[in-house]
Amino acid sequence: MNGLRSIRLYSLAGLLALTLYAGQAAAADPLTYEGASTIGHMVLPEATKLFTAKTGIPFGVIGTAGAGAGFKAVVAGQVSLGGLASEPTDKEKAALTDIEVIGYDVMGIFVHPKNTTKDLTMAQLKDIFSGKATNWKEFGGPDLPITIYSEKLDGGRATVKAFKAMVLGEAAYGPVKELDDATDCVADVAKDPSGITAASMSFAVPGVAAVSVGAAKPEAAAVQSGAYRLKRPLSLIAVKPSQEVLAFFEFMLTPPAQAIVAKSFVPAK
């Protein structure tokens, strides 16, 4: 784990031991989370309930303000643990003592279902999101101006950071309609025939279509083979975590918790 703690001293045996002290755990301060909305929306609501049922360790607030906000809150000691939805930066690695990958998120490129564009290359995505390409007819689509929806570019959102690293590189984002949350971006694309957004496949709704990228569909098999390249690790993070937090990290790699992850993402195990 790049020098970080990779073998948890707090093992499943310790997790079972905590269960014996469920009464004491219930009286403790609840664990709290802030970070990536993908983890906060799609995994933690169900996983934390199961964790508490098994151990008696309470879990409180689950924030979804984004990976940047989660990192800052963890470092400041404002929450028990946070969540990242992209490769941690060198700065993040230096500040954190524990990073646990619990799964992998597949990033989808969503368009309106009436859009006849069905496949885009990485180079074409760069042209679109940098503002170099401005009309769908350039890609076999309708004669409509391209409208890009994105989470706030300066909001510390993991999707924005990951997409820039994987697709844009040194290029800057072009003109975009900035919204607070990825779910809002997907919802607006569902209403806009000219729209496009990059968001977790876990946020897919019936009113949008995910295009192939480089002829590869955003599916688990293509992700695991490397054919579909838009993926990112989902990690829980902490600074000098308590035994209760380490127990939760350990729990998230157990089969029941990984089954919850697999409902929306590619599991780590």
Can you offer a commentary on this structure?
- The chain is 37% helix and 21% strand.
- Residues 1-11 and 20-26 have low confidence and may be disordered.
- It has helices at 12-20, 22-27, 37-42, 44-55, 67-75, 90-95, 122-129, 158-168, 182-191, 220-225, 243-251, 255-262; strands at 31-35, 59-62, 81-84, 98-111, 119-120, 147-151, 177-179, 195-200, 209-210, 212-213, 231-238, 266-267.
- It folds into two domains: 12-104 and 232-267, D-Maltodextrin-Binding Protein, domain 2 (3-Layer(aba) Sandwich); 106-225, Periplasmic binding protein-like II (D-Maltodextrin-Binding Protein, domain 2, 3-Layer(aba) Sandwich).
- Helix 1 crosses helix 11.
- The strands form two sheets. Strands 1, 2, 3, 4, 6, 7, 8, 9, 11 and 12 form a ten-stranded mixed beta sheet that branches. Strands 5-10 form a two-stranded parallel sheet.
- By secondary structure, the chain is of the alpha/beta class.
Beta content comes to: 15-25%
Name of the CATH class of the largest domain: Alpha Beta
Distance between the termini: 15 Å
- Mean model confidence by pLDDT: 90
The biggest beta sheet, please?
A: 10 strands, mixed
- What is the second-level CATH architecture of the largest domain? 3-Layer(aba) Sandwich
Number of strands: 12
Shape: elongated
What is the CATH topology descriptor of the largest domain? D-Maltodextrin-Binding Protein, domain 2
Describe the protein's topology:
Blueprint: H1 12-20, H2 22-27, E1 31-35, H3 37-42, H4 44-55, E2 59-62, H5 67-75, E3 81-84, H6 90-95, E4 98-111, E5 119-120, H7 122-129, E6 147-151, H8 158-168, E7 177-179, H9 182-191, E8 195-200, E9 209-210, E10 212-213, H10 220-225, E11 231-238, H11 243-251, H12 255-262, E12 266-267
Parallel strand pairs: 1-2, 1-3, 5-10, 6-7, 6-8
Antiparallel strand pairs: 3-11, 4-8, 4-9, 4-11, 4-12
Helix pairs in contact: 1-11
